[in-house]
Amino acid sequence: MRMRLNIAIDGPVGAGKSSVSDETARRLGILHLDTGAMYRALGLTALRKHVDVQDEHAITDLCRNLGVSVSHEADGQHTFVQGEDVTGLIRTPEVSMAASTVSRYAEVRKEMVRIQQKLAAETDMLVDGRDICTTVLPNATAKIYLTASAEERARRRWLEMQEKGEKDTFEEVLSELKKRDEQDMNRAVEPLRKAEDAVLVDSTHLSFEETVQEILRIVEEKRHG
Ligand code: DC
Prior knowledge:
Blueprint: E1 6-10, H1 17-28, E2 31-34, H2 36-48, H3 56-64, E3 68-73, E4 76-81, E5 84-85, H4 93-102, H5 106-122, E6 125-129, H6 132-136, E7 142-147, H7 150-163, H8 170-186, E8 199-202, H9 208-224
Parallel strand pairs: 1-6, 1-7, 2-6, 7-8
Antiparallel strand pairs: 3-4, 4-5
Helix pairs in contact: 1-9, 2-4, 7-8
The structure holds 2'-deoxycytidine-5'-monophosphate.
């Protein structure tokens, strides 16, 4: 029997993970699971229900009853909470910060990892996040750590925001990004780090297409030796 094709991509905020993962999965003809969306769904629900994101006990309870699910449509992944499509609501800066905070909690991570492993066992999938190479799919076919300098990541994020008409300055975007990096890399449970056997792809000086090509090259190498 052919081995399940699972590709794991980790990296910090703004490294181009989501768009690069989307395109790479499309070219490989497999699904792309955006795991950040699941932590965002929890962050959004906490904000909506006025549950204090600093209250680990309350957030853990909320997570157990979250009923988070995803589906893959022609326009990409949709994320649901108790059947409600929250895809359009989880990309705000408030939800980003809340997601980063709630993702610190061990029981939250355990629950999310359980769901992600189940999904990846069922289907060929490219999974992107922070702990995919280290924890969710340690035996993935290919493991990649995608990064870029903080300035370049902030610049990309800022350009995206400008296109949407958002008014934040480059300095504000850079400072927010560094704050989230700090929180994601220094949490006690499963901090963001490169797995020893993950291949480093630094996209600071690579175009989008070059980044996708590099990842496809690594995947082919791992698949066929
Ligand atoms: O990738 P993202 O920005 O959508 O992720 C939102 C937050 O969720 C991020 O600050 C860290 C957290 N996260 C995580 O801890 N583990 C993952 N596998 C994915 C995201």
